[in-house]
């Protein structure tokens, strides 16, 4: 049986690791979302490639498949943010963590308004916020399980 004194150093260690990991994550995120579209396409081109592959394999139209893949990619892009923020700020409520993901996403979309080759979209904010919430769940569910039995 572990006591709270056994878990406190472990939690503190994960908090420090997450705070440090947030820095390179946010730098990488900034590169993906703020680069001009043609440069960002080199980084995120795998999403279009995967959409083309699945569309051809299933006999689907390319454009709707691409939209779905882009939405899913935006969700996946923010899952690490939810994980890292939940670990980095363990005293923050789930609502605060999810709100931080939403606010970061809104800030990204506002900045993208000023980048001629980028397109801002409400669907990106929804996907990114969903990704943050899923990342939070990755951290919260094991904690909930351990406290309930």
How is this structure best described in words?
By secondary structure, the protein is mainly α. It has one domain (4-41, 77-148). It has helices at 4-34, 37-58, 62-88, 94-112, 122-148. The chain starts with a helix and ends with a helix.
Concise overview:
This protein is 85% helix and 0% strand. With 149 residues, the chain is mostly helical.
Task: List the defining traits of the structure above.
149 residues; 5 helices; mainly alpha; globular
Write the layout of secondary structure elements.
Layout: H1 4-34, H2 37-58, H3 62-88, H4 94-112, H5 122-148
Helix pairs in contact: 1-2, 1-3, 2-3, 3-4, 3-5, 4-5
Count of structural domains: 1
Derived from helix and strand composition plus strand pairing, the structural class reads: mainly alpha
- Ranges where pLDDT stays below 50 over 5 or more residues in a row are none
Report the C-alpha radius of gyration, rounded: 18 Å
Counting copies of identical and different chains, the oligomeric state is single chain
């Amino acid at each position: 049986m572990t006591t709270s004194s056994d878990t406190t150093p472990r939690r503190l260690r994960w908090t420090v690791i997450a705070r440090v990991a947030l820095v390179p994550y946010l730098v990488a995120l900034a590169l993906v979302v703020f680069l001009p579209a043609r440069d960002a396409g080199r980084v995120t081109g795998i999403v279009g490639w995967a959409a083309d592959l699945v569309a051809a394999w299933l006999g689907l139209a390319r454009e709707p498949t691409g939209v779905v893949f882009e939405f899913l990619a935006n969700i996946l892009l923010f899952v690490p943010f939810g994980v890292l923020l939940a670990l980095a700020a363990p005293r923050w409520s789930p609502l605060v963590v999810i709100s931080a993901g939403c606010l970061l996403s809104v800030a990204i979309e506002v900045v993208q308004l000023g980048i001629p080759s980028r397109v801002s979209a409400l669907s990106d904010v929804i996907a990114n916020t969903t990704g943050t919430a899923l990342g939070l769940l990755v951290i919260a569910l094991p904690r909930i399980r351990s406290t309930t039995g």
